[in-house]
Amino acid sequence: MILEGLKNKKVLILGLGKEGIDTLKFLRRLFPKKILGVGDRRESVKGQISNQKKIEWHLGKDYLKSIKQYDIIIKSPGIPIHLPEIERIFREKKITSQTEIFFDNCPGQIIGITGTKGKGTTASLIYRILKYAKMRVKLVGNIGKPALSSLLQAKSGDIFIYELSSHQLYRLKKSPKIAVLLNIYPAHLEYFKDFKEYLNTKVNITRYQRKSDYLIYNPKDRIVRKIAERSKAKKIPISTKLRNKFGLIGDFNLLNLGAAITLARLFKITNKEIIRALKGFRPAENRLEYVGKFKGIKFYNDSASTIPESAIAAISALKERVQTVILGGSESNLKFDTLAKAILKQRVKNLILFPDTGRKIWQAIRRQMRGKNLRSLPRHFWAKSMPEAVSLAYQHTGKGRTCLLSPASTSFTLFQDYKERGSLFKKYVKKIGSS
């Protein structure tokens, strides 16, 4: 979507989350006299905008009825893709996204990073290395600034590190000059029709690459390897045979580190520069984040764990220190048998379980123990709020041991999102721990 094409079109911004607000501000700067439409199910979003001139609001449960009044719809990631009204505008080719606008108009070089897990940490590592090497680099997407806020000042020599979620890659018609593909597991199955559609969306990071482009990929992931085989780009496998000198917890971070180092070498950055750039690096919030030691117990916040594989990685990283794990969240089609095996293998003593998937996780553990001595079953406790869960953790975790929040599920049963879940966990760990 070339920006000039929006000038004489009626434009509707659908979804006023972080990305939608950025899109509104961007278009207002570009077209100060233009009337823009804003549609959102939540009526409260109107209060998030200070200057409400030249905006047509379409709020509440019937907000999608406004679609037919507009020529172009800019959809935010949070709007479900398989609502009948959304599917129709996809067929009519009236729809675009912030990511598509950025890709079509960015004069600089885009490094796109995706994967079911690890893309945020990898993007942060790459940004830190290139920034240290004095390159004109900006971090955009989920973990950085919304993309369009950087577009108006973008120049041809700029490098944009774009963390790309499956929502942002959906039906994208361009791929980045350099793509990084980490791993693919079943995820967001409440958003996509099935795993096949989710997988097909992830392929867009390399689908439109040319022979002069680069794909940095994880050769140990069978699905990623197959995608790489079909890519036209120059393929560079990620090596995880490296020493973790940076204090990052867990073998899974070796993949993130390996991807960042592989890309740095593509830019001819030396090992010495890489080591200096990453000195003192810490993962982002909610990603195996050390909260602190309270009443003799260590607490880790891994609220960004929304699939079983990430919870398994967190439990494995902390090993026998983990005595208590807080699990569970929104209902999903995910399977928890492999997670159950990991919990039993690590001999986790206490499970604190949130609805709805907490019950599924417990059932998976019971299945693994069928015909075995039930005395080795972990104790389980049900919680319906974060204060209740943290209180249970303090009651049942011994001094010198660890409590881990790694839900293996999305958060929407009890929380607005994984960020709120992690924030509340930290709040009550500190509050109860200091009482």
Structure, explained:
By secondary structure, the protein is of the alpha/beta class. The chain has 3 domains: 3-99, Rossmann fold, CATH 3.40.50; 106-277, UDP-N-acetylmuramoyl-L-alanine:D-glutamate ligase, CATH 3.40.1190; 289-433, Mur ligase, C-terminal domain (Protein-Tyrosine Phosphatase, Chain A), CATH 3.90.190. Helix content is 34%, strand content 18%. It is built from 15 helices and 17 strands. The strands form 3 sheets. The chain has a 6-stranded parallel sheet, sandwiched between helices. A 6-stranded mixed sheet has the order 12-13-17-14-15-16, sandwiched between helices.
Task: List its salient traits.
34% helix, 435 residues, alpha/beta, 15 helices, six-stranded mixed sheet, UDP-N-acetylmuramoyl-L-alanine:D-glutamate ligase, Rossmann fold, Protein-Tyrosine Phosphatase, Chain A
* Cα end-to-end separation: 55 Å
CATH homology superfamily of the largest domain: Mur-like, catalytic domain
Number of helices: 15
Strand composition percent: 15-25%
Oligomer: single chain
CATH architecture annotation name of the largest domain? 3-Layer(aba) Sandwich
The rough form would be described as globular
Mean pLDDT: 93
Helicity level, as a percent range? 25-40%
CATH topology of the largest domain: UDP-N-acetylmuramoyl-L-alanine:D-glutamate ligase
Structural category is alpha/beta
Instruction: Please count the beta strands (DSSP E, at least 2 residues each).
Output: 17
Q: Rg from C-alpha positions?
A: 23 Å
The total domain count is 3
Under the CATH scheme, which class of the largest domain? Alpha Beta
User: Which regions have little confidence, pLDDT < 50, spanning 5+ residues?
Assistant: none
Biggest sheet character: 6 strands, parallel
